[in-house]
């Protein structure tokens, strides 16, 4: 049947792919969101309970959206991959959440937060979305405080702020080093309240394994009950995917082990375009890899760079202990290369510089894949107690993991994958190219462009969940005729059968290698060729290697046990299979984007000083990849980006 | 890199909730720099390559904040260290030649699903009964409209750090959930935002806790010693106070007209 | 039963509250009991003790006090047994390796057993001096009865064991009761830590009587 398109506030842009209409409102930037909300249809409270909303994922975006939509009266079902919604990886965010409250009276405003985010994203984000994000930021803080989030306070009882990630204003709200945890627990408590009131049907230990599209509209998902192995069908009038990022395509990342691309990749294969997969963020201050068994990397707050000095020995392959290396034989390379910003250069530059040093054979530690972060001078200057007061828990964490005392010997650090800016393409309503499928939080591509600012991920997840989706969901629910579809629909049975077949296929290979060992090998390829610095030839070889590894996976993986009970090996194998397909697209996206911007650095495209060089003529757009079927190359569609307010400029940190 | 260590793991294997479990010994060569969960990863890789079923254990963030990892190592929830989750425990804390018995968290309210994986959804049901402030999205007052003394905010944060791992239940000889529940009660009870529902919350969460089949608190204080986030047993005394006050003064809920 | 009492008795916290309050009242009784018994040491012929005993026995409120004590004991024991059964049910399977992080004490881990030993002692004690006296008629004075009973066979040793159990029981009880009642604060906690030595005083005090009669009279 034909679906009636939702009313949009602008006429379709000319010369733009018909499915990539951003639906951004027109008019003055600061009024667009208000105008758009007014233009969207409202749904009568009595009618809301007739609509079934399916939310996949319970991180900040998923929990916030579930709770808010249930409060409004929708019938919500929420799938959670963990045993409890409280475990989603949003919980691990340390630093804080940005909001344009301007409490410190230091010149911040919604406009400045908007401006900083567009610029920080290296002009690869949609202006209207970013402005809306900055607008919502202030309401988020109000909401979280009312929920009982114990933000840091001043002695007078007012909220405290700090400056974060090199920002010139103090706009970051925080709860010790556990801001993500506290915000997630806030959203989780709101979600729990609705579950207790019977308005949310919460299904923990469920993994979405496919999307069901009926007559071109997303109408539900197929999920596996991870405790019993049962394949379950969930039908709804609208599907919200809040399934996080794909950083684990690198195997080693700061993401939690369960973070995966499966939900978004399955939706992609059903018709949702995947935007900018090559935009990944590498965080400079992580604890380095210590051995081949390493399962994950641990991030330490980048605030450490406020007092720590980064250096490597001047000589190659210097095996002396750091204390024995005299001052004259140390290279404080960030201070040398960037005299004005020094150790506080942005994340991408700090990360890339560390790679340069280790590539040049100057790495330190047993693996030679690390640089020093030295607090000796800060301790001499301010005393050990002052440093302990500032970074005590980080030093403790470092000591626990490495067994070394960072007060006595310099920390060893190395960059690690941390966040992914790319994701499913969405319009201004957060709707993907499949009508009825909305994508929130890190899973979408929308707001951070090619690089995300510190303390902005929490802001985006909550803005999408608490404030954006409750308004924009009406574009679909009120704008389209939705015939009744239940779990008995033939399409549900067909997709469930495909999921079952795939599970059986994985179990039937009975090869020699664990999925994890293949994942580790994939991670090596991705880290080496699609990591901090990329080249055309490296990306080509990555595409070949990934294809070969995928071949090996489908012939030689061993998944023991059965599909009929709790089987973590099976869960993992399914995810690795999707990473093996997704990784190739990432390489291709990086290959086709012949420029450097934000987290995407192509060695062929740099200034004479070795800085990222954008190509705004050819690449001022989002690349949205379209799946064409098994074994066929994907089509690269584009959504052109226009900058009406913030004029593109070259970043400079010299 | 440091030299390798030889250890023996006695791991609890249990097919599902119905069947009996047993301990199974595995010899492992490990590096002192490995985390305990990485030892299980390596062992699982070996089991899979031999065509055997891998050991099921719960884990996710591996940086001590998500509360997924559990495990009782040689009788101690999260292993021998204070304020440390299993995922943050490294093998240098053991000696070569050590025998380590690895068991799931044991409590009637946390039934074993498989091997080392237990069902901790009882905690979620306790939260759903009242572990929140009733505030709908959009209806919040301006953030700085309500002042919160710094000491109160700090104490609330001390309690709010709970990661919901369930080590308190696992360590308690009575499998009591008092430390978990009291941390929630203290977190919201210390903040002005939590006051309107304070009594109702204490009553509801304690009855939910009782329904789940946790034991009674006998003040052994093993919970506080096992808690990886150092949550204080003083919160339990606070819960005891709040609850008594609520029982004696809370009126029956009024059935008002309208919504 | 009033609703509030029903609510209290049906809740895990309520049961602990009543166990703590009844326990503390019983401790008060023990303090008074010990103070009265110390009259044994006032003279060699027991006249001080006998006149103290007469004072108690001639009080018309005695049956009321006895009934009160009985209620306290029954409530305390009943709830403690019930709570212990519930606790066992909450942890059906035991750990293969018995170990912990060192906060549990022998005293805290054996509350039900020391409590039951004290109960056994109590039955013996009441047989010896309440029912036994009743059966013997009002003839002899109490001091003589105490002296003869506490020198008979294993009785004095049963008393010493009973009082040892009491000491162990109270060592945890005196700390635990205040936590259960919610009286926790850094200053208060310090006071409770000191107060738990009362357990030792009571146990030694009561145990001194059989030893005194056995070895010094």
Report on the structure:
- The complex is a heterotrimer of chains A (654), B (259) and C (217).
- With 654 residues, chain A is of the alpha+beta class.
- Among the domains of chain A are: 283-416, Succinate dehydrogenase/fumarate reductase flavoprotein, catalytic domain (Flavocytochrome C3, Chain A, domain 1); 506-620, Fumarate reductase/succinate dehydrogenase flavoprotein-like, C-terminal domain (Methane Monooxygenase Hydroxylase, Chain G, domain 1).
- Chain A is 35% helix and 14% strand.
- Chain A has 17 helices and 19 strands.
- In chain A, strand 18 (621-626) and strand 19 form a beta hairpin.
- The longest helix of chain A has 25 residues, at 568-592.
- Mean pLDDT of chain A is 94; it is low at 1-10.
- By secondary structure, chain B is α+β, with helices and mostly antiparallel strands.
- Chain B has helices at 36-49, 121-130, 150-160, 167-171, 178-189, 198-211, 222-226, 234-249, and strands at 5-13, 22-30, 72-73, 76-77, 99-103, 112-114, 117-118.
- In chain B, a hairpin with a 2-residue loop joins strand 3 and strand 4 (76-77).
- Chain C has 217 residues and is an all-alpha fold.
- In chain C, helix 2 packs across helix 4 (62-90), helix 2 crosses helix 8 (155-180) and helix 6 (111-135) crosses helix 8 (155-180).
- The longest helix of chain C has 29 residues, at 62-90.
- Chain C is globular, with a radius of gyration of 19 Å.
- In chain C, 29% of the residues are buried.
- The model of chain C has no long low-confidence stretch (mean pLDDT 92).
- Chains in contact: A-B, B-C.
- At the B-C interface, strand 4, helix 6, helix 7 and helix 8 of B face helix 1, helix 2, helix 4 and helix 8 of C.
């Amino acid at each position: 049947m034909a679906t009636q398109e939702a009313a949009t506030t602008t006429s379709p842009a000319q010369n733009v792919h018909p499915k990539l209409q951003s639906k951004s409102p027109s008019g003055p930037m600061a009024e667009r969101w208000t105008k758009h909300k007014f233009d969207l249809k409202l749904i009568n409270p009595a009618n809301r309970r007739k609509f079934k909303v399916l939310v996949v994922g319970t991180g900040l975006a998923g929990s916030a959206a579930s709770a808010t939509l249930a409060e409004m009266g929708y019938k919500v079902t929420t799938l959670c991959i963990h045993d409890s919604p409280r475990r989603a990886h949003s919980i691990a965010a340390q630093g804080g959440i940005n909001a344009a409250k301007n409490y410190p009276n230091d010149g911040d405003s919604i406009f400045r937060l908007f401006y900083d985010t567009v610029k920080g994203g290296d002009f690869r984000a949609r202006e209207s979305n970013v402005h809306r994000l900055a607008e919502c930021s202030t309401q988020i803080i109000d909401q979280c405080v009312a929920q009982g989030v114990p933000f840091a306070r001043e002695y007078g009882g007012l909220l405290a702020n700090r400056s974060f990630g090199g920002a010139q204003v103090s706009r970051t709200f925080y709860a010790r080093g556990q801001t993500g945890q506290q915000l997630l627990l806030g959203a989780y408590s709101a979600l729990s309240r609705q579950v207790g009131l019977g308005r949310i049907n919460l299904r923990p230990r469920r993994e979405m394994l496919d999307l069901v599209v009926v007559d071109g509209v997303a109408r539900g998902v197929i999920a596996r009950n991870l405790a019993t192995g049962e394949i379950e069908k969930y039908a709804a009038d609208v599907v919200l995917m809040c399934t996080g990022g794909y950083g684990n395509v690198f195997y080693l990342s700061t993401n939690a082990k369960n973070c995966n691309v499966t939900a978004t990749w399955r939706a992609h294969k059903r018709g949702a375009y995947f935007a900018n997969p090559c935009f990944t963020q590498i965080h400079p201050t992580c604890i380095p890899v210590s051995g081949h068994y390493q399962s994950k990397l641990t991030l330490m707050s980048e605030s450490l760079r406020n007092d720590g000095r980064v250096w490597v020995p001047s000589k190659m392959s210097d095996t002396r202990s750091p204390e024995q290396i005299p001052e004259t034989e140390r290279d404080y390379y960030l201070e040398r290369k960037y005299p004005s910003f020094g150790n506080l250069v942005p994340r991408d530059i700090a990360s890339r510089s560390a790679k340069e040093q280790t590539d040049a054979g100057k790495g330190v530690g047993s693996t030679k894949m690390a640089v020093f972060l030295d607090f000796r001078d800060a301790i001499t200057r301010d005393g050990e107690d002052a440093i302990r007061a500032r970074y005590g828990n980080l030093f403790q964490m470092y000591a626990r993991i490495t067994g070394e005392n960072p007060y006595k010997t310099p920390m060893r650090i190395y960059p690690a994958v941390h966040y992914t800016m790319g994701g499913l393409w969405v319009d201004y309503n957060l709707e993907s190219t499949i009508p009825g499928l909305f994508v929130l939080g890190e899973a979408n591509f929308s707001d951070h462009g090619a690089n995300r600012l510190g303390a902005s991920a929490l802001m985006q997840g909550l803005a999408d969940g608490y404030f954006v989706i409750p308004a924009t969901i009406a574009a679909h629910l009120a704008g389209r005729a939705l015939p009744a579809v239940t779990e008995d629909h033939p399409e549900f049975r067909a997709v469930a059968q495909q999921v079952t077949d795939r599970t059986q296929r994985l179990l039937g290979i009975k090869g020699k290698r664990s999925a994890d060992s293949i994942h580790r090998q994939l991670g090596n390829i991705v880290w080496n060729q699609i990591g901090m610095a990329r080249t055309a030839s490296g990306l080509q070889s990555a595409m070949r290697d990934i294809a070969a590894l995928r071949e090996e996976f489908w012939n030689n993986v061993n998944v023991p046990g059965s599909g009929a009970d709790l089987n973590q090996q099976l869960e993992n194998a399914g995810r690795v299979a999707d990473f093996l397909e997704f990784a190739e697209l990432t390489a291709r996206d990086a290959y086709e984007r012949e420029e450097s911007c934000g987290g995407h650095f192509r060695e062929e495209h740099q200034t004479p000083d070795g800085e990222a060089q954008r190509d705004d003529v050819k690449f001022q757009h989002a690349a949205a990849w379209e799946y064409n079927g098994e074994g066929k190359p994907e089509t690269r569609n584009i959504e052109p980006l226009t900058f009406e307010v913030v004029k593109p400029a070259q970043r400079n940190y010299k | 890199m440091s030299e390798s260590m030889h250890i023996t793991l006695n791991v609890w294997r249990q097919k599902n909730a119905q069947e009996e479990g047993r301990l199974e010994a595995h010899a492992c060569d490990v590096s002192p720099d490995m985390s305990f969960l990485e030892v299980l990863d390596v062992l699982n890789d070996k089991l899979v390559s031999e065509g055997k079923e891998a050991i099921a254990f719960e884990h996710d963030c591996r940086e001590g904040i998500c509360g997924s990892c559990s495990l009782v190592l040689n009788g101690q929830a999260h292993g021998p260290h204070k304020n440390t989750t299993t995922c943050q425990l490294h093998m240098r804390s053991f000696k070569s030649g050590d025998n380590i018995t690895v068991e799931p968290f044991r409590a009637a309210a946390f039934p074993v699903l498989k091997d080392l994986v237990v069902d901790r959804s009882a905690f979620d049901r306790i939260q759903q009964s009242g572990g929140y402030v009733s505030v709908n999205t959009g209806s919040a007052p301006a953030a700085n409209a309500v002042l919160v003394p710094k000491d109160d905010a700090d104490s609330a944060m001390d309690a709010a750090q709970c990661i919901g791992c369930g080590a308190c239940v696992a360590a308690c000889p009575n499998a009591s959930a008092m430390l978990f529940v009291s941390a929630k009660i203290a977190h919201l009870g210390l903040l002005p935002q939590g006051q309107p529902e304070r009594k109702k919350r204490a009553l509801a969460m304690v009855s939910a806790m009782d329904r789940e089949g946790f034991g009674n608190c006998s003040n052994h204080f093993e919970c506080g010693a096992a808690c990886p986030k150092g949550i204080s047993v003083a919160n339990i005394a606070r819960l005891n106070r709040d609850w008594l006050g609520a029982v004696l003064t809370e009126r029956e809920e009024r059935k008002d007209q309208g919504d | 039963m009033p609703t509030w009492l029903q609510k209290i008795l049906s809740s895990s916290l309520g049961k602990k509250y009543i166990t703590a309050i009844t326990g503390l009242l019983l401790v008060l009784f023990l303090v008074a009991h010990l103070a009265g018994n110390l009259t044994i040491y006032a003279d060699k012929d027991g006249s001080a003790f006998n006149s103290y005993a007469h004072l108690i026995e001639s009080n018309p409120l005695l049956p009321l006090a006895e009934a009160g004590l009985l209620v306290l004991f029954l409530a305390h024991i009943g709830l403690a047994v019930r709570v212990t059964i519930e606790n066992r049910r909450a942890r059906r399977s035991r750990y293969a390796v018995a170990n912990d992080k060192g906060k549990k004490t022998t005293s805290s881990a054996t509350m039900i057993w020391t409590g039951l030993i004290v109960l056994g002692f109590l039955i013996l004690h009441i047989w010896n001096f309440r029912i036994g006296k009743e059966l013997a008629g009002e003839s002899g004075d109490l001091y003589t009865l105490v002296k003869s009973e506490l020198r008979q066979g294993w009785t004095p040793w049963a008393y010493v064991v009973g009082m040892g159990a009491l000491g162990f029981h109270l060592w945890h009880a005196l700390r635990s009761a205040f936590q259960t009642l919610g009286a926790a604060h850094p200053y208060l906690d310090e006071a409770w830590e000191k107060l738990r030595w009362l357990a030792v005083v009571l146990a030694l005090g009561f145990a001194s009587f059989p030893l005194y009669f056995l070895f010094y009279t």
